[in-house]
Amino acid sequence: MKALRELNAQIADCRACPRLVAWREQVAHEKRAAYRHDQYWGRPVPGFGDPRARLLVVGLAPAAHGANRTGRMFTGDRSGDWLYRALHRAGYANQPTATHIDDGLELADAYITSPVHCAPPANKPTADERANCRRWFTQELDLLDNVRVVVVLGQIGYQAACVDLGVSPRPKFGHGVEVAIDEHRTIVCSYHVSQQNTFTGRLTEAMLDAVFTRARELAESR
Fold it and tell me: pLDDT digits over 63-90, tens only?
């Protein structure tokens, strides 16, 4: 879809948030020792996937040494390992791994984005930074007009989706919670695939699989 490609190019050129610009570029210059030979992306990370997707996955923001390094959502870090394994098991991804932007990964009927497109320090964007990035998220939602199910990973993604999709009042976030947007679309909540959740067992692969199984059921019933 030409309009989505053009939007992603605009996202990748954004410099609206001075703190985020400074941080993403500092990380790209200093690098982590394990990736010292890599050429870091160091820019806003556009969405990724099938423009005609019925499933939209909404995260938080790129990881400093993951998507900020590779240039693709949830690619090159352990959070992405969890997410893409689950998407592969659910039939949305052609392979279970995401290591770099040219690794052959493709999504079918799924698209991934986040309400903040730059890596934030400590993975915590400010309210102003979230507000600045909202215009991109809003335009993405408008262009992804085939979406029937929105899987949100964590509370920030949930809040952003509810605001832009007009869900009010907003039910309390919880893993597995389902929220009707309208008669055709539903939000399905999941804990984020961060190491804070996966290492502690708060989120298991079975729990994540159940979310995507339910998402497919909902998408195919509309």
Answer: 999 999 999 999 999 999 999 999 999 9
What's the CA gap between 66 and 74, in Å, rounded?
Answer: 7
pLDDT of 1: 76
Q: How far apart are CA 77 and CA 19, in angstroms?
A: 23
The residue type of 72 is: R
How many structural domains are present in the chain?
1
> Could you tell me the strand order of the sheet in which 178-180 lies?
48-49, 110-113, 55-58, 149-153, 186-190, 178-180
First to last CA, the chain: 23
The first and second tokens of residue 49, run together, are 């996937």
CA distances from 79 to 11, 36, 61, 219 (A): 22, 21, 12, 24
Question: Is 90 within 8 Å of 209 (Cβ atoms)?
Answer: yes
Question: Which residues form the domain of 119?
Answer: 2-220
Q: Give pLDDT tens digits for 117-134.
A: 999 999 999 999 999 999
* Nearest one of 215, 211, 193 to 203, comparing CA atoms: 193
Q: The tokens of 93 are what?
A: 């991804």
In 3D, which of 103, 85, 36 has the Cα closest to residue 65? 36
Q: Which domain CATH number covers 173?
A: 3.40.470.10
Q: Is the pLDDT of residue 222 over 80?
A: no
pLDDT > 90? residue 110: yes
- Contact assessment for residue 15 and residue 21, using Cβ atoms and an 8 Å cutoff: yes
Task: For residues 161 and 168, give the distance between their C-alpha atoms in angstroms, rounded to a whole number.
Answer: 11
For residue 159, what pLDDT is reported? 97
